[in-house]
Design goal:
This protein is α+β, with helices and mostly antiparallel strands. It is built from four helices and eleven strands. Helix 2 packs antiparallel against helix 3. The radius of gyration is 16 Å and the shape is elongated.
Length: 164
């Protein structure tokens, strides 16, 4: 995977979507959605865990077709913002190697009331996992190597030696 620019973003009023090779900044993402009009701010932080299906995971590596992934993320943000009457939404996804316990995705939303923020944030996450053109390489310890998989919960992947 070639190293792209470290930061790519699309923005509009109350919407920000970001792909970056840098560590994600939780305070910055929360600040993006905070506003006096919002009575609720919800943040989801997806982190790299140290195991999958009983196997030790050493790290994850994310790749994407960034121009398309950004457009898809922006479209999701527009839909969710309108549907749940959110004040603001920011979605940030890290690309490249993400070590154990570091964040790979942040989704922050704000809304006048908590129910809209909770449901809007959850829907944005589920749509992102389902639709955004991001793939992950899950590296296991030992001789097992890694597995490429779509960025979906529990999805089985293709072992690296089978992917060629």
């Amino acid at each position: 995977m070639s190293q792209q620019s470290s930061f790519e973003q699309l923005q509009d009023e109350g919407i920000s979507v970001v792909l970056t090779h840098s560590a994600l900044d939780i305070p910055s993402v929360i600040a993006d959605v905070k506003t006096p009009k919002a009575g609720a701010v919800v943040l989801f932080a997806g982190t790299t865990r140290d195991n999958f299906d009983g196997k030790v995971v050493t790290h994850l590596e994310y790749s994407s077709y960034s121009p398309l992934a950004l457009r898809t993320m922006f479209s999701i943000a527009q839909v969710v913002k309108q549907k749940h009457a959110l004040t603001a939404i920011t979605m940030a996804h890290r690309l490249g190697v993400v070590p154990i316990a570091e964040e790979s995705i942040l989704i922050a939303v704000s809304a006048p009331h908590r129910h809209a923020a909770w449901t809007g944030g959850q829907e944005a996450l589920e749509m992102c996992k389902e639709k955004v053109e991001v793939w992950k390489l899950e590296e296991f310890g030992g001789d097992e190597g890694g597995v490429w998989r779509a960025n979906r919960d529990g999805a089985r992947g293709v072992p690296l030696d089978s992917a060629n």
